[in-house]
Design brief:
The structure holds two protein chains of two kinds.
Chain A (H helix, E strand, L loop, with lengths): L1 H28 L7 H26 L7 H19 L2 H27 L3 H20 L5 E2 L13 H19 L1 H11 L1 H6 L4 H27 L1 E2 L12 H13 L5 H21 L4 H20 L1 H26 L1
Antiparallel strand pairs in A: 1-2
Helix pairs in contact in A: 1-11, 2-6, 2-9, 2-10, 2-11, 3-4, 3-5, 3-9, 4-5, 4-9, 6-7, 7-9, 10-11, 10-12, 11-12
Chain B lengths: L4 E12 L2 E12 L3 E6 L5 H8 L7 E6 L2 E3 L4 H7 L1 E4 L11 H6 L7 E2 L2 E2 L1 H14 L16 H13 L5 E5 L7 H16 L3 E5 L3 H7 L2 E6 L2 E7 L5 H9 L20 E10 L2 E9 L3 E6 L5 H9 L8 E4 L4 E2 L3 H6 L2 E4 L3 H5 L6 H6 L3 H4 L8 H14 L16 H14 L4 E5 L7 H16 L3 E5 L3 H7 L2 E6 L2 E7 L6 H8 L1
Parallel strand pairs in B: 3-10, 3-11, 6-9, 9-10, 15-20, 15-21, 18-19, 19-20
Antiparallel strand pairs in B: 1-2, 1-4, 4-5, 7-8, 11-12, 13-14, 13-16, 16-17, 21-22
The structure holds adenosine-5'-triphosphate and magnesium ion (MG).
């Protein structure tokens, strides 16, 4: 029991050490600006969108598939959700419903094509990204995008609604990954497809479901995106990547943290850390280009440092071992 | 006698493109029987058993299991019908837990409405591990944290989940150390006593004689004969497998310990893993055997000598050249070759061709005057090696995934032969290789020795050690406990004393 508590503490420290350092650093640099109650609220609120995107990408990533089209799916779903909400007059429930529907349809389509065409997912998703980016202009004939008219519709991206959406999504994600046979199957399949296939797992079906599930989270992200921005314009020429840039950075950090804690918790901590950093950089007056550069660099330094930590630990253990060995050799000589 | 047939195959055919792996195979096994399946590398043993166990489909033919027609859809389906198989290749997924591995494909039966309790799963898996005598493996651990042998034991546990009536063991014993072998033999004994059946594939003829009631021989995809009782002898098996009398000797037929005084590889006071301040010298023209139990440190020693793992104290050097082996690049440059025990993960590139695998360490040799690789010499090199080791394949472009287990092992061997290594460090070199080719490899080793090359043989196979080495080091718990020179009097018992 005692041992368990000790181990738990150790893990918590290992998980938190890097995020805490970054938060502390930016806290100091901004003279505490990012730690005011208002700022903390903003940071948490802004974290929801990238967190949802990561949840959308992670099941497929575990299966060894990188779906780059997810940003375009989000844009298309946000625009569709906004337009249909305006025309039906169903308000926020309408926005959520239509965003979810659109996203699920699109990612399911991605999954179908992935299974039928059998080209590498990376290639397919880059192609589909262009297609999905063009969809809003093709279907709605609008190049300027869509604006939601009433201010009250912004509520979905504000507390408490935004946190309720997050809580629902997080619980769903946590259960899928940790508590279901499906979650276990994707880990097995991601580990070794051939062995999993031989063991009787239906590989195509598992991948298909992975895409469909990713649509649920992408849809939720889309609704929040629309509600937050009030206006969403279609992208072109891979422009939708910028939508998911923050999520990408968070994803790397989250995957690293998952060495010490559950991945679901890891991504939340990661995303909050990254968002705090963004806000800190804003407060320090960096423009968006510099912010991205600095964030990436910090992340790489972090990962490089932590990635080499096991070597450092081993190096120290080796030093001790060498000392003992030399001592033993001395002794042998004198005898 | 009233013996009841539990499983039988009728007219099984299977082809991979132009390769006919199985031709009209008829086979049957009784309850309470241990039935050996033997044949040269690539004769179709794994193909046959993996079809029976649901890992592959067949082209034509039928199976009967316990009186019913039987056609498995996948391995789990086969297990549910009562046939389980321990495969020849690495069969566990590293990135998930031991328990998840044991229950892969069976999660449904262990969940409620798709929900899963990891704790329960771990407990169930632990019980299975305990039951087969492998309680020291923790079911909740990540599988990649286990060593090669324990991962194999996890596979044994996985097969036992469904409590099979027919157990197929494909070339597993050579991958296991003493501990694992004991587990496996106990299991086979249990199957026999419970009136179930075991199909046992192995290249170790003594082992087959020891445990099999009957032995069926495959050659080039056809059943040649089934041996019974006293007819199960080394000579008979060898003759039927190869299709002709094998002449000449098997191991070395001299009993002279001979080598030059020149030291070609020297370890001074090296420390790593199990061993501390260890000294070792390899001489020119020497075959040096290193043996012990699997945990004694001999596998690690091989890795340190080749520079894959760094020694913590002291050094590994080539005294004549005054070179220190700090990493594999230096080792290869100085013509040292190393064959790892964990073949599929450490020694070959599965998704590359035979040619690409063979030429990997000898690119320098293939370079033309301008530094480009010549396709012609590439092909020639691969063709030569395929011939020397009788690698069974369509051509040198065939991918390694498509080769039989023993033939993959031959590719690893040939890769180091091709680059004219002066020193070969061989960790379980002849694992899974058939007797005919083993003999050929032993001749090659003799040949290398006579040319003044040096070889380190690391293995638990004592007959091979005694049969081939000039000098033998016995290791126990990281220490060298004894050294033997080649002699006709040397017996296995003498050595085992120093191992345990
Ligand atoms: N996936 C595949 N594609 C093409 N050829 C294959 C494939 N699998 C096996 N073969 C071929 O079928 C033949 C039989 O192979 P199999 O693995 O059954 O041999 P084996 O008797 O188990 O040999 P070993 O003793 O080396 O394990 C070989 O010639 C092999 O190259
Ligand atoms: Mg085989």
């Amino acid at each position: 029991m005692k041992y368990k508590i000790k181990e738990f503490l150790l893990r918590t420290i290992k998980t938190m050490i890097f995020p805490a350092c970054i938060l502390l650093l930016f806290g100091l640099l901004t003279k505490g600006q990012i730690f005011t109650g208002r700022m903390i609220m903003i940071i948490l609120r802004q974290s929801v969108f990238p967190a949802l995107i990561i949840m959308a990408m992670l099941p497929n990533l575990t299966l060894g598939m990188m779906d780059f089209s997810i940003g375009a799916v989000v844009t298309m779903s946000a625009i569709t959700g906004g337009i249909l909400m305006n025309t039906t007059g169903w308000g926020l429930p309408g926005l959520v419903l239509f965003s979810l529907l659109t996203a699920v349809i699109l990612t399911t389509l991605t999954g179908l094509l992935n299974n039928v065409l059998r080209v590498p997912t990376l290639v397919l998703s880059l192609g589909l990204m262009l297609v999905y980016e063009a969809l809003p202009s093709l279907i709605f004939r609008s190049t300027s995008g869509v604006a939601i008219i009433k201010v009250k519709y912004a509520a979905l991206a504000q507390p408490p609604l935004v946190f309720i959406v997050f809580a629902i999504a997080f619980i769903l994600f946590y259960i899928i990954i940790n508590k279901t046979t499906y979650g276990n199957n994707i880990k097995a399949l991601g580990g070794n497809e051939e062995l999993a296939r031989r063991a009787g797992l239906d590989v195509d079906k598992i991948k298909q479901i992975g895409f469909t599930i990713s649509g649920i989270f992408a849809g939720a992200a889309a609704a929040i995106y629309m509600s937050n921005n009030g206006q969403v314009s279609p992208n072109a020429a891979f422009g939708s990547i910028t939508t998911i840039m923050d999520a990408f950075l968070g994803l790397f950090l989250g995957m690293f943290l998952s060495n010490f804690c559950n991945i679901s918790i890891g991504i939340v901590i990661a995303v909050v850390t990254m968002t705090a950093m963004t806000n800190g950089l804003v407060a320090l007056g960096f423009d968006s280009t510099w912010r991205d550069i600095i964030k990436s660099v910090v992340l790489f330094i972090l990962l490089a440092f932590s990635g080499n930590q096991p070597y450092f630990v081993r190096w120290r253990a080796n030093l001790k071992r060498a000392e003992e060995a030399n001592l033993a050799a001395e002794k042998a000589k004198t005898v | 006698m009233g013996k009841e047939i539990i499983f039988s195959a009728h007219g099984i055919c299977k082809a991979f493109g132009p390769t006919r792996a199985l031709i009209d195979v008829d086979f049957s096994i009784y309850r309470g029987e241990v039935h050996g399946l033997i044949g040269e590398n690539g004769s179709g043993k794994s193909t046959f058993s993996s079809i029976a166990a649901g890992a592959q489909s067949l082209d034509s033919g039928t199976f009967t299991l316990k009186g019913q027609p039987y056609s498995p859809k996948n391995m789990v389906d086969a297990q549910n019908h009562g046939i389980g198989m321990i495969v020849q290749e690495q069969g566990t997924i590293g990135s998930i837990s031991v328990a998840s591995n044991i229950f892969t494909g069976r999660m449904k039966e262990n969940s409620k409405f798709g929900f899963l309790s990891m704790k329960q799963l771990n407990e169930k898996a632990q019980i299975i591990l305990n039951n087969i005598g492998a309680g020291d493996i923790n079911a909740s651990l990540l599988t990649s944290s286990l060593n090669f042998e324990d991962r194999k034991i996890v596979e044994i546990a996985r097969v036992m989940v469904a409590d099979p009536d027919v157990l197929i063991v494909d070339e597993t014993t050579t991958a296991l150390a003493m501990k694992g072998r004991k587990i496996l033999y106990n299991l086979i004994e249990k199957f026999k006593s419970e009136n179930k059946a075991v199909i046992f594939i192995s290249h170790d003829l003594n082992e087959l004689i020891e445990i099999c009631d009957r032995v069926t021989v495959l050659r080039d995809g056809r059943i040649i004969d089934t041996l019974e009782g006293d007819n199960i002898s080394e000579d008979n098996m060898r003759r039927l497998m190869v299709g002709r009398e094998l002449d000449g000797h098997y191991f070395r037929n001299d009993y002279i310990c001979s080598y030059d005084d020149e030291i070609v590889l020297e370890a001074k006071q090296i420390t790593y893993g199990p061993f501390t301040n260890l000294d070792l010298q390899l001489h020119k023209g020497e075959i040096l055997g290193i043996t012990g139990l699997s945990e004694c440190g001999m596998h690690e020693l091989g890795k340190v000598l080749f520079g894959i793992e760094k020694t913590i104290t002291g050094s590994v050097t080539i005294p004549a050249k005054n070179v220190e082996i700090k990493n594999p690049t230096i080792a290869i440059k100085n013509r040292i070759g190393y064959l790892s025990k964990d073949r599929d993960r450490e020694s070959i590139i599965l998704n590359a061709s035979i040619k690409d695998n063979i030429e990997l360490p000898c690119m320098d040799k293939l370079k033309g005057p301008l530094g480009f690789i010549s396709t012609k010499s590439e092909r020639k090199l691969a063709r030569e090696q395929i011939e020397v080791l009788q690698i069974k394949c369509r051509n040198s472009e065939q991918l390694l995934t498509e080769l039989s287990g023993g033939n993959k092992q031959k590719v690893v061997f040939s890769k180091w032969l091709a680059c004219d290594s002066d020193v070969l460090i061989l960790d379980c070199a002849t694992r899974g290789i058939d007797v005919g080719v083993k003999a050929a490899i032993y001749r090659l080793l003799e040949d290398l020795k006579s040319k003044g090359k040096s070889v380190i043989l690391i293995s638990e196979e004592l007959p091979e050690m005694i049969g081939m080495s000039d000098r033998m080091l016995i290791m126990q718990n990281g220490k060298i406990t004894a050294e033997f020179k080649r002699s006709p009097e040397l017996k296995e018992e003498d050595i085992i004393k120093y191992m345990i």
